[in-house]
Design a protein that fits this description.
Number of helices: 7
Helix content: 40-55%
Strand content: 15-25%
Largest sheet: 6 strands, antiparallel
Distance between the termini: 33 Å
Length: 227
């Protein structure tokens, strides 16, 4: 369940394509790895921020799963309603292994940047990588089934939604969402949910179509399309 969908495109593509030709040399500066103490403090601070924002409901077990249901954001207008319903459709497509539909929610800029970074990969190679990543996400559904007796479904629940500045014709939001796990126990429903995840939602056409962008190496470059 911890392994929710994150498009770690660079590392996945490198493994997939390096058998064909050498990967391009990165011009990125060396990254200084934080000490264990610094990393622990950063995690503590992130944990505190989440607890403050979510409130007393955030009381996870050792696997980051909470009983009950998370607070749910209420859409304020048609624009936000469409965004949230698109996230639900995206999630549903992945869980049903309708990867063709799920890929329609991947931002075109993410795909074009990936092609630029890995020119040695054909369009078919790159398409297969995105499909494989979505398959990994869908497999989390099977993991949930084995862990929770009476499992019925897992759905995304938006807990926070913020509109960000964007250029004309475009829309950009940041959001936190949790995976809500619905189960049954003696004919009564019970719920569990996972630690909230962060992502961006973006649209090129004033909200008619939405794309979901995870935090990856090229996120800032992707967001330039909308800012």
């Amino acid at each position: 369940m911890k392994k929710l969908f994150v498009l770690i495109i660079s590392s996945i593509l490198l493994v997939s394509c390096q058998k064909k030709v050498s990967a391009p040399v990165s011009n990125e500066p060396n990254i200084v790895i934080a000490s264990e103490e610094q990393e622990y403090r950063a995690m503590e601070e992130a944990d505190k921020v989440l607890k403050d924002s979510i409130g007393s409901k955030y009381n996870p077990d050792e696997n980051g799963i909470c009983e009950g249901a998370p607070d749910e954001y209420s859409a304020k207008n048609a624009e936000e309603t469409k965004l949230i319903s698109s996230l639900e459709e995206y999630y549903k497509a992945v869980m049903k292994k309708d990867f063709s539909k799920a890929k329609s929610y991947i931002c075109p800029k993410v795909i074009s940047l990936t092609k630029e970074k890995f020119p040695q990969c054909s369009d078919e190679d790159i398409d297969e990588i995105f499909t494989s990543t979505l398959k990994e996400f869908s497999e989390s559904n099977e993991i949930i089934r084995t862990r929770f007796e009476g499992f019925k479904k897992a759905v995304p629940v938006v807990s926070q939604l913020y509109k960000l500045p964007s250029k004309e014709g475009c829309l950009l939001y940041s959001l936190h969402y949790s995976t809500l796990i619905l189960c049954t126990d003696d004919d009564e429903n019970y719920y569990a949910w996972h630690l909230p995840m962060f992502m961006y939602a973006a649209s090129y056409d004033n909200g008619r179509n939405w794309y979901f962008i995870e935090l990856v190496e090229d996120t800032n470059e992707v967001l330039k399309d909308f800012r």
